[in-house]
Amino acid sequence: MPEQGREPKRYPGLDLLRTLAIVLVVIGHTTSAYNSERNNTTANLEYRVLLLGGKGVDLFFVLSGWLLGKQLMQELKGTGSIDLRRFWYRRWLRTLPAYYAVLALQVAWQLYRGNHDLSVSYLFFGQTYLTTMPFFGISWSLCVEEHFYLLVVPTLWLFWRVPSSRWLAPLLLILPLVCRFFGWYSSN
Fold this sequence. Notes:
This protein is mostly helical. It folds into two domains: 1-80; 81-188. The protein has helices at 12-33, 40-79, 84-112, 140-161, 168-181. The radius of gyration is 19 Å and the shape is globular. The termini are far apart.
């Protein structure tokens, strides 16, 4: 954990990966926003480029998990515990105000367009559990991030306090790959 008043050590390689992730996501969103079905070849190329945005999101998730995990493990090693309230407060202070501001704009737009079929799931990051997201589809990635914030500290604490539970770590890391392999993430 960095000392008070000191900036955490920067890793230029991680900054480069973060930049790459941003570029991939921007390319994916740009392709999606300006997608045209002029001909089948163009549509296939645009679809392949669009998939790069998903790779950028995956890269963001890996980087966030690694960086947060490293900070949390340093705190755990240094103090023997993790200040859960402080962790959640800092994480949510960074994400929730912007999320709820954009959500309010999205809801206002939906109401203006006459869509009154709004789900309360969006308030509690439950929209990823809906079979279809009627609007604000891009918010799925923040849902995953918020669920990660809720679970990462209790999981690390469990592994630290109960060493016999550490066998679960590889299982938790493999589980998303298994779900993706069997297509369980798809709503189709």
